[in-house]
Amino acid sequence: IHTPYKIHTKPLKRRSKMKKAVTFGEIMLRLSPEGRKRFVQADRFDAVYGGSEANVAIALGNMGIKADFLTALPDSPLGDAAENFVRSFGVNTKGTVRKDGRLGIYFLEKGASQRPSKVVYDREDSVFSRLKEGEIDFKKAFERADWFHFSGITPALSRQVALITKEAVCTAKEMGLTVSCDLNYRAALWSTEQAAEVLRPLISMTDVLIANENHLKMLFGIGEGKKLTCAQAAKSAAEVFDLRQSVMTVRRTLSADDNSFSAILFENGNIYRSKKYQMHIVDRVGGGDSFAAGLIYADKMGFSAQDTVEFAAAAGCLKHSIEGDAGIFSAKEVSFLAGGFSDGRVQR
Fold first, then answer.
1. Cβ atoms within 10 A of the Cβ of 37, count?
2. Is the pLDDT confidence value at 347 over 90?
3. Given pLDDT bands bounded at 50, 70 and 90, which one contains residue 104?
4. Cα(263)–Cα(258) distance, rounded to whole angstroms?
5. Which tens digits make up the pLDDT trace of 73-103?
6. Over 70: is that where the pLDDT of 278 sits?
7. Cβ atoms of 298 and 267 closer than 8 Å
8. Which of 126, 197, 246, 261 would be a feasible disulfide site paired with 104, CB 3.0-4.6 Å?
C-alpha cells in the first residue's frame, strides 16, 4: 500500500533475537456499568483487567515486541484470571509474585458529552502495594532486556513500592537498559509534594520521559510563572533531567466524546511534532499507555525521531477506538494510521 506520509516500515527483527522490554506495575480488575450508565444506575458491571504498565506490555506484545510484565497478584482464581489475561497477548509473566491478599479494583463510569468520566479506586492494601524488597529479582528479570518502563503511578502505591521502583530503575541503569517513565500523576493517590519528592530522583535516572506541561509545572515547577508552550516544556524538562528524549502528549478536550490528540518530541536540540488527530472516543482509558508502547516500539525498531513521534501518536489515537484498557492493534495498523489513512473507511 502506498501511503501519503512515508513512515518507516522496516520489518520486525526475528522475535528470537530481539531483546525484550520489561514493565513493572500493578494490574487491577476494572468494573464498568454497561454502556454509558452511571454508577447509581448500574445493576451489572463489565469486567476487564488493566493497569498502566500492563497496558504498555500488552500493546508491545500485540505489535510483535517481546515484553515481560513484572507484578504481584493474589494466589487466587482472580489472580489467575488477571495473569491469564496478560499472557493471552503474548506477554511473559513468569516474574509474577504470588501471595495471599487481594487484587486491586477500580470502577469506571464512562462519561458522555459534557459529563466527564469518573474513576473510583478500591486498591488499598492490595497484594502489589504490599510487595517487599527482594521479592522480585530485577537482575534476573533484566537479562536479555534492553528497555525498562514504569509509570509515576507505581511508586505512589506505597512507601515500600516506591523503594522497589527505585531499586528497579537503579538496576536497569547499571545493566545498561534504556529507562522510560510516563509521569502519570494521579492526585487521588498522593499529593504533589509527595510525588515530587519521590519522582525527581527517579526521573533523573530516566532516559525517556513522557509527560504533559501541566504535570511538569505542578510537580517540578518547570515553567512556573511563565506561559510555556508544550515544545518549550519538553525542552526544559530535557535540560532539567538530562533526558535523551522528552515527549509531551498534547490533548485538547472538547467533550467526553471528542478530543484532539497529538505529540511533541524533543531530542538533540530539535523539536518534532506529530499530526493532530480529531477523535470520537470509544474508551479513553489507556490512550497514554498505548502512546508509550508506540514510542518504545518505534525507538527499538530504529525509526527516525519524526517517524517515532508519528507512530507513537497514532498508537495513542488508535487506542481511543478500542474498548477496555489495552491497545489491541498490530504495528501494521498503527503504521497505516500514521501514514495518513485516518478516514475510517471499510478495508476490503
1. 15
2. no
3. very high
4. 17
5. 999 999 999 999 999 999 999 999 999 999 9
6. yes
7. no
8. 126
Cell numbers found for residue 189: 493517590
Return the closest-CA partner of residue 145 out of 109, 95, 84, 195: 95
Q: What is the mean pLDDT of residues 168-197?
A: 96
As annotated, the active-site residues are: 289
Of 255, 263, 315, 242, the closest CA to residue 281 belongs to: 255
Q: Which three cell numbers, joined as nine digits, stand for 256?
A: 467526553
* 15 pLDDT above the threshold of 50: no
**What pLDDT, on the 0 to 100 scale, is given for residue 342?**
74
Taking CA 267 as the corner, what is the angle to CA 261 and CA 271, rounded to the nearest 5 degrees?
A: 50
Separation of alpha carbons 23 and 329, rounded Å: 19
pLDDT digits (tens, 9 = 90+) for 228-240: 889 999 999 999 9
User: Is the Cβ–Cβ distance between 137 and 34 less than 8 Å?
Assistant: no
Written in H, E and C, the secondary structure of the chain is CCCCCCCCCCCCCCCCCCCEEEEECCCEEEEEECCCCCHHHCCCEEEEEECHHHHHHHHHHHCCCCEEEECEEECCHHHHHHHHHHHCCCCECCCCEEECCECCEEEEECCECCECCEEEEECCCECHHHCCCCCCCHHHHCCCEEEEEEECCHHHCCHHHHHHHHHHHHHHHHCCCEEEEECCCCCCCCCHHHHHHHHHHHHCCCCEEEECHHHHHHHHCCCCCCCCCHHHHHHHHHHHHCCCEEEEEEEEECCCCEEEEEEEEEECCEEEECCCEEEECCCCCCHHHHHHHHHHHHHHCCCCHHHHHHHHHHHHHHHCCCCCCCCCCCHHHHHHHHCCCCCCCCCC
The span from the first CA to the last CA of the chain, in angstroms, equals 13
